[in-house]
Amino acid sequence: MPRINGDRRLPSLPARYDKIQVPLWVLVVGLVARLLGRLVRLAVRHPFAVATLVIGTAFYRSTGLLGFGLLAGVVVLVAVVWRLVHRCSFDRAAWWAWGRVRLAFVYRRRWRAATVHCGLAIRIPASNAEQVTFDEYFPRIRTIRASRTLDSLWVELLPGHTPETWAEQAEALRHVYRARACRVRSGRVGFVWVDFYRRDPLAQPVAPYPVDGPDVPGGGLENLAVGRREDGRPWLLPLRGSHVLVAGATGSGKGSVLWSLIRELGPAVRDGLVELWVCDPKGGMELAAGSPLFARFAYDLPAIADLLDDAVSRMRARADALRGVARLHRPTRDEPLIVVVVDEIAALTAYVTDRDLKRRLSASLPLLLSQGRAPGVVVVAAVQDPRKETLPFRDLFPVRVALRLVEAEQVDLVLGDGAHDKGARCEDIPTGQQGTGYVTEDGAAEPLRVRACWPDDDEIRRTVDRYGIPTAEPVGDPPALPAPTVTQELVELLRLRGFDHIDALPVPARRRRRTTRPRARWAWRRGSRPGGWVPDLTEYGNPWDHR
Ligand SMILES: Nc1ncnc2c1ncn2[C@@H]1O[C@H](COP(=O)(O)OP(=O)(O)OP(=O)(O)O)[C@@H](O)[C@H]1O
């Protein structure tokens, strides 16, 4: 009769182990050896802490409390002098020491319980006939990096675990350690970084970084420092050889990302290595302030279509010239990097009603996005609604930034599938934290939380004054004339040209009422200006044209 279990043997049943009688001295020697082994292991793993403890105890025993206090005073004095002389190395050492303290007293203290309760430890049943037991395996913390904002633990994965296993438990770990946030980043194979954030470095607006001089973070067109990362380091955006899409609901701060980028390009614009071709389909309101920095600036649809067609022509000419010479264009003064900036790209794709314009725009934009990277014509675009119907060629942008979004589903549309599950909660970004968002970086599996710098109007003005090109001519309707300064000479000149009286000008109704006020008329007749009253002649047109 065939056996139910085939030819396999039955698993062995737990059985009572034989007891071995050992002499007492063997037991004592064994325990002492074990204790010594643990001490040696402790000294090897924590040499600094053990050395401090040993030296401190020895000093205390040989000199007493006074000597020990003196030693502590000398240590503090050395630390203060060190900090004053070389702040950078002092900070590094201080954060290192602080990290060790937190590792010992915060993380290691609750580590075993935390990993068991979050399902990150492995328990294998090892019961025998006498007792129910488990063999437990805990993930090991290999090292810690502490900084002002976060503690990063470098953890060795147990067999069968992946970075995703840990990412799923990030929220539970956050609560165990009372952290503001916990994120998991994959590291080398078999390891993960578990970041516990104590403070939010992005809570306050980020001041713009210097763009000139020795303190410039990043460097080059591959690393433009446009904001701050959650770990406190500068957020570096690659531009050369890439296209950048910034998606965010209205008022989420897309403008600050665009302005930070434009500001960072200021020195390269001044040196002639970059040309900014800017399209502002929202009527030029957002970006017009920077027009002296722009080689081309268009804010009505026909002008934008012309600009994009010209960009395609330049791209094709360059591609012909570079064929067989280089695989990626290197910006020079003769052939600068062309950065096409488009604020609200949906206005060029989804909301155009004119058929001809629509045809031209829907041909040029995908061409630039699919072929412009290598010949040095890159596109930086902002969009409010990232859905496929609004932006059909969204996937052609290698670098995508998601600011505050209206719906959770939009996160994956911008950053790629699974980004929301990996922690990019763009719908939870507070409305008051404009410029905050998530970005996926090359090689990083998890989205990175960032906040764009906030260049205010004064900073934009300073940038324009410093790096603007005086010859730049805007494309589109001519700009409004600046209000002329009304001086006595101007009034005399107007009289000479046939205007005997200021009332003879073609005054609009509202103005006429104002200029006929007795005080104002008196002032004009006397040829002086009453304090604080500056007549605005803009509505008259250019006074030099009145003949
Ligand atoms: N990085 C930032 N830091 C602090 N405040 C910011 C930042 N970015 C924007 N703001 C504030 O938010 C306001 C709206 O920003 P912005 O105009 O850039 O939004 P937007 O996304 O471009 O909106 P829309 O799509 O409606 O033009 C700004 O006027 C400014 O006060």
Automatic annotation (TrEMBL):
Residues 232-412 form the FtsK domain. GO terms for biological process: cell division. ATP binds at residues 248-255. The chain crosses the membrane at residues 20-36, 66-85. One of its GO terms (molecular function) is DNA binding. Signal peptide: none annotated. PROSITE patterns: FTSK. Keywords: ATP-binding, Cell cycle, Cell division, Membrane, Nucleotide-binding, Transmembrane, Transmembrane helix. This is Cell division protein FtsK. It comes from Frankia nepalensis. The lineage of its organism: Bacteria, Bacillati, Actinomycetota, Actinomycetes, Frankiales.
